[in-house]
Amino acid sequence: MLRKRNLVIESIRRISSKSSLFCTTSVQPARLSWEASSQVILKKKLETALKHHHIDDAWDVFKDYKRLYGFPDSSTMNRFVTVLSYSSDPAWLCKADDLSRLALKQNSGLVNSDALTKLLLSLARAQMSESACNILRTMLEKGFVVTSDVLRLVVMHMVKTEVGTCLASNYLVQFCNRFMELKRNSNVIKPDTVVFNLVLGSCVRFGFSLKGQELIELMARVDVVADGHSVVIMSCVYEMNGMRDELKKLKEGIGRVPSQLLCHYRRLYDNLLSVEFKFDDVCSAGRVVLDICKSKDLSSVQNLEKVMVLPVGSHHIKSGLRIRISPELLQRDSSLGVDSEATFVSYADSKLGVTNKTLAKLVYGYKRRENLPELSKLLFSVGGTKLCADVIDACVAVGWLEAAHDVLDDMDSAGNPMDLVIYRKVLSGYYKSKMVRNAEVLVRQMTKAGLVTDHSDEIKDCENTELRALLVQEINAGEQTKVPSMLYELNTSLYYFCKAKMQGDAVTTYRKIQKMKTISPTVQSFWILVDMYSSLGMYREITVTWGDIKRNVASRDLEVTQDLLEKLVVNFLRGGYFERVMEVISCMKEKGMYNDVAMYKIEYLKVHKNLYRTLKAADAVTEAQAQRVAHVRAFRKLVGII
Length: 642
What we know:
This protein starts with a helix and ends with a helix. The chain is mostly helical. The chain folds into 4 domains: 37-146, Alpha Horseshoe (Serine Threonine Protein Phosphatase 5, Tetratricopeptide repeat), CATH 1.25.40; 224-297 and 306-331 and 340-353, no CATH class; 358-478, no CATH class; 485-639, Alpha Horseshoe (Serine Threonine Protein Phosphatase 5, Tetratricopeptide repeat). Strand 3 (345-348) and strand 4 form a beta hairpin. Helix 17 crosses helix 19. The radius of gyration is 33 Å and the shape is elongated. The chain contains 29 helices and 4 strands. Helices cover 66% and strands 3% of the residues. InterPro entries: At1g68980-like_TPR, PPR_rpt, TPR-like_helical_dom_sf. Residues 39-160 form the At1g68980-like TPR repeats domain. Keywords: Repeat. Belongs to the PPR family. P subfamily. PPR repeats lie at residues 419-453.
């Protein structure tokens, strides 16, 4: 008792001294008799410091109180956490985070939901994403309700950074899993569309396309209705992952939207064209272009159903997922940063159109396949003789004189002859290239058509110089694409087989990719394969896949991503392959990638809570056991499990 009294006296002197030096309104010691409990004295000091928002004083008193008596009552703790939350100093916010979680670990009733919510919002606004996620996870674990409005605000701040996006996406997965476990409980709030859109949009911005695909499937599992923003963001994820079939289903799902939404869905059409070019399917791209340019005529037609259901994955899989979409619903604050400038689709005067980049790719693609008659039909359908003239001019400029001549012939055969000036451009190109016979043929055609040519006339230059330049770029790029189109086709087959749990066919397709000398598996290939093995609980096969990944990285045929490596860590944890766990974590550190240690800890505790808790390496019988114990202990140390 004497020792406690001395500590109390020292605490009072220290706080009073600090108050007189640094505070304009010093905290005067309460006049309490020495017979009063020292616990009451310290509690009064703490309450007074908190009342005047003297955080330094409050912290010093709190440390003394906790050392002597443990945590104060819940009312004082809630007040303390709230006062710390009002600070703009990250150090105090960090202390509030640590203090709250420590208190709740000891007694789940010490800090209430209101105090935690205030702290959560303060941490999120301060861009302390890791601490904010810690509080979110703690509240989820303790059964505290985070309202939809609060969760939206917190996530909106978190996803502004790459690390915050990683944490927010992992928390959303954890939140949804908990919801599906407890969905019969009426107190469990389902994550909403806005939260999904915020996280999905940030996955697109920071290149976490594989995590984005996982979230889309999760959205279907928890039956969250996708709105118009969701549809566009999903199209971005599908484009990044080369998933053409999924994009086509989205496009069919939205149908013909009202004219006021054409601008919004421009990005979806842009992504669809992009993936058609990735597949090197110029004919299919041409059909998309025709559909885009007809949108102005059909935009008044609206979907009769407000909410539609689309399959996620092949519709041939009976057990496949389904997602509900409401394409005409656009919720506020539902998307961040995915409305960047489109590459292939333009929008002007309430109409969709195509850019010169699209035209250049179409011209190059049709020319390479020697299918110029189809190109001519497409050009006239999209832009009439004016667009045909621009393309002919560009072909002449790059030396494709015969191609330009073919387009002239196609237009003439279709009853849409070009102007004299266009003929003269092709003719001039023939003369400059000394292609005399071709020039003579063209002159006879012009004479037959009644087109008189006068060499003294000046040939007017075409205004569309951008198309010329872009066509030159396409020619120079040639076949130098990052991923061969055949690999996209094989990945599509691999995705179907994996989702259908057709392991034999999936492995056969994967081995086919491996055997090809001209192509190598992509991160999407490995993600699809790992996802299948994970769903089947085949963790040993994932270790084999990890070996393939390392070989491809070593040969510089593959650049691994954070979401792929993180998926490997989680699956190795579930399978108990701790050497592989530490190996992948080390790889992520070397590449400067963020490790969500808190998530790793949660996954570990689900399956291996007491694994080798007391066993030491010296207790192991074999060398393999000793190494396993060492790896487990290293992991436990990493995630803070004693």
